[in-house]
Write a structure and sequence with these properties.
about 350 residues; 12 helices; about 90% helix
């Protein structure tokens, strides 16, 4: 009985101690918050470098296995990736900036068209039941807030890129050393894990690399190809803002199901502001792009790496959007892929142990 009392006293004391520490940390927030933010900001280039190195590592390994020394294989991939990126930035950024500014100037015309579109929806839905009418209004308001947020943030992101030039400049060097010492860094990380969990960690890492790695590399390649095709097709269709809209279509395609709609809406509104003929051409282009992406690019490049029902993916997207907005929509499916990979690994592990 005394042992049980001591156990409860210990638990209550621990809870009180954790609560006290939490209160102290909360009130000391102004003291340490800027230090924490500084540390996080300083880690961003290393995190970006790690992601790029992870994406490029299979290409380096493939060339190395063909007989080229690892250092030369890294230099080749390094030059192709960063050289191509720098050349593209040099050639396309002035065009992108000009088109972006032109879009901002055309906003009054687009907003006028949007108001007219909303008026028509309001008139057609006015006779619907009140709960349905209210729900449509809420959806439109959310879409407006999301659109305004993306426009505002796009300007902020461009400023951040300029302001953090030094951090961006060191990323290629970080990527080089990550690629060069990839195995060494993996071994160091593995040694930090207790011995009894190392084999499990290796197995889980292989499972994650097979599913998550395949999905994320494939999705990035699909987005890049779609960006290129969208830009070319829109340019052929005489759309003035082909490059900016190609970037939007490419980025939003990372979001399954909802991404093509998000990317198509600004494209259609801008086309409609220029005339019915252009709107029809752009509509046909978007349909063709979606058919190519859905029936050719995604099945061939990504395949069925997610292995889950579309309803679960949609629920994950809605949940991600509710929690973290547009960023939540982007990271929702990769997070789902990681979760499914972990569940699948432990399920197979349990099956192996039982058999």
């Amino acid at each position: 009985m005394d042992g049980l009392k001591l156990k409860w006293i210990y638990r209550l004391s621990l809870i009180l101690l954790i609560g006290l520490v939490g209160i102290v940390f909360y009130y000391l927030k102004p003291v340490y918050l800027h230090i924490v933010i500084g540390i996080i900001k300083s880690m961003v280039p290393f995190l970006i470098g790690l992601i790029i190195a992870y994406l490029l590592h299979p290409a380096v390994e493939y060339i190395h296995k063909k007989g080229l020394r690892r250092v030369f294989a890294i230099l080749l991939i390094y030059l192709l990736f960063f050289g191509g990126f720098a050349l593209s930035l040099y050639l396309l950024f002035p065009v992108f900036k000009q088109q972006y500014n032109d879009i901002l100037k055309s906003f009054p015309k687009v907003l006028s068209l949007y108001d007219s579109f909303l008026y028509k929806i309001e008139r057609k839905t006015s006779r619907m039941p009140i709960f349905l009418h209210t729900r449509i209004d809420l959806m439109i308001n959310k879409a407006e807030l999301l659109g305004l947020s993306l426009v505002n943030r796009s300007g902020e992101w461009m400023k951040q890129v300029v302001n953090n030039f030094i951090s961006i400049f060191i990323i290629p060097f970080i990527v080089f050393y990550f690629l060069k010492d990839y195995k060494l860094l993996s071994d160091i990380f593995l040694k930090m894990i207790p011995k009894k969990w190392r084999n499990e960690t290796k197995g889980l890492a292989r499972e994650l690399n097979d599913t998550f790695g395949k999905y994320i590399r494939g999705q990035i390649l699909v987005c890049f190809l779609l960006f290129g095709m969208a830009t070319i097709f829109l340019w052929i269709g005489r759309m003035k803002y082909a490059l900016v809209l190609g970037v939007i279509i490419g980025i939003t395609d990372i979001i399954p199901y909802f991404g093509p709609i998000i990317g198509a809406l600004p494209t259609l509104f801008l086309a409609a502001s220029e005339g019915t003929s252009l709107l029809i051409r752009v509509g046909i282009i978007l349909i063709v792009l979606q058919l190519i992406e859905g029936n050719l690019l995604s099945p061939l490049i990504i395949g069925k790496s997610i292995h889950t029902h579309p309803v679960i993916i949609m629920f994950t997207l809605i949940l991600g959007g509710e929690i973290a907005g547009f960023m939540g929509l982007i990271i929702a499916v990769p997070a789902l892929v990681v979760l499914i990979s972990v569940i699948r690994y432990f399920k197979y592990r349990k099956h192996r142990l039982s058999s």
